[in-house]
Amino acid sequence: MFMHTITPPPASHFDEMLSSVTQSQSQSQSQRQGQFQSQLQSAATLAKAKPMDPINFGPREHYQAYNQWLEATPEIALTQRRAQADLLFRRIGITFTVYGDEGGTERLIPSDVIPRIITADEWSYLEKGLTQRVTAINKFLADIYHDQAILKAGLIPREQIEANAQFQTKMVGVKLPHDTYASMAGVDIVRNNDGKYYVLEDNLRVPSGVSYMLMNRKMMMRLFPELFLKQTVRPVEHYPAMLLQTLRESTDIDNPTVVLLTPGRFNSAYFEHTFLAQQMGVELVEGSDLFVKDDYVYMRTTRGPQRVDVMYRRLDDVFLDPLAFREDSALGVPGLFQCYAKGNIVICNAIGTGVADDKSIYPYVPDMIKFYLNEEPILNNVLTYQCRKPADLSYVLANMKDLVVKEVHGAGGYGMLVGPAATAKEVADFATIVKANPSNYIAQPTLSLSSCPTFVEAGIAPRHIDLRPFVLTGREVRMVPGGLTRVALREGSLVVNSSQGGGTKDTWVLADVDGGAGGDTASERQ
């Protein structure tokens, strides 16, 4: 018996921790996806259950050790540690900014104390798929700013690239070291009720959230050290060192000077900027801290000017240089682009990378993989309707109440409609907006995102989640095991963004105890 009241998920949901079986059926056989095994009974099997069959829930095999700990832990102890976690995050100042929020701009991002656990085989599958995807995207970016072979082949309409607001014409012909455009990528992955993983979107401009991944782990190891002695959890705390290595590998200069460029303390991810700079041991700078002389970028220091070789920028293209982009930008460095175009500084991610994380380009990533790598995609896209196409627009307008409709440049949960959760008036109003500018929108089926038990006010209940692994590309593609699990804390909500009331979970990737997907464990790194 559970010591905690755990609200079971609907039988049709894929729950990461709990597996459902009916009394009239035995546990279903394992279901293979790619190279990993899933221990959950398939949705098809559940659909065959008789309506009156009682449904029982039990922990999956890879959650057994955690479940034993949970059963032995009094609810009051879990409540107290949850309060300690909130206090810890408040003291450290882990915040994000909600623009336009009347209740105040600074908020703490909620962190749940129940982890999301991924098996070694599952992670191996995801890692291969992510490596393949990001490799193809980098080849695509190098191509469209040079030979444009994929456009000449007719796989992507030329006008869809050249008319895209994120396509920077100034970058055409600019040579980058190693042809690496996306040194950092945050790829949003969801699992549907069919048990399969899908890529929901690619975040390439200034992907954020990695500091929450690191702080979630730090908090869990501090408050629940006994769990890491029971579990072979792979570590993530070496991400800043891996990021610094990636930045250094982006240039051919030995021992380069690296800086992190921030828009300043009013940016929504400013905590992350300061945290990463401190963890990497590099200078956190604003545009006013830098200047250009003789086509080189210098940083003002107390010892005099110091040349900058690599810039990890955390602001959008248009703000980087008022001489090349927005004239009214006070955040960038005048003359920066000319230095960049001459190869005198490396900017990560590269200027113009945003065209590849545009939601109107997302449907073509499987074609990129086939075209550049001559491989079949390992990770599937979600079926996507492009409203710029008349047939797709007609379908979207007729079925909007059943779809998720998104702005192609939207982020943070803004500029979107979740049809099943919207009122008839909201659907009608959004349809009017889409019809006024169809090329600015795409639509996707409403997926039943997998759920994971989450500690909420009413106890432990299922909440929908996604996963954002962080993929780094230097001389090779690398990533720490796992990523940031985001959770929709509102009951029934599918929107996991922190700006829309979402929270986060620590993501555990279990080590392969047989040595296949090894690496140190978190407990060994303590």
List key phrases describing it.
single chain; 526 residues; alpha+beta; Dna Ligase, domain 1; 2 domains; five-stranded mixed sheet; 27 strands
Folded structure, characterized:
The protein is α+β, with helices and mostly antiparallel strands and 526 residues long. The protein has two domains: 1-170 and 182-236 and 357-382 and 447-526, no CATH class; 383-445, Dna Ligase, domain 1 (2-Layer Sandwich). 29% of the residues lie in helices and 23% in strands. Strands 7-27-26-23-22 form a five-stranded mixed sheet. A five-stranded mixed sheet has the order 17-9-8-24-25. A hairpin with a 2-residue loop joins strand 22 and strand 23. Helix 3 (75-92) crosses helix 7 (210-223). It is globular. The two termini are 32 Å apart. Mean pLDDT is 88; it is low at 22-53.
User: What is the general shape?
Assistant: globular
Helix content: 25-40%
- The total beta strand count reads 27
Count the DSSP helices: 15
How many domains? The number is 2
What Rg do the Cα atoms give? 23 Å
Biggest sheet statistics? 5 strands, mixed
Oligomeric state as shown: single chain
Task: Report the end-to-end length measured between terminal Cα atoms.
Answer: 32 Å
* Backbone structural class: alpha+beta
Which runs of at least 5 residues are low in confidence (pLDDT < 50)?
22-53
Mean pLDDT, to the nearest integer, reads 88
Strand order of the largest sheet: 7-27-26-23-22
How much strand content do the residues show?
A: 15-25%
Summed up:
With 526 residues, the protein is α+β, with helices and mostly antiparallel strands.
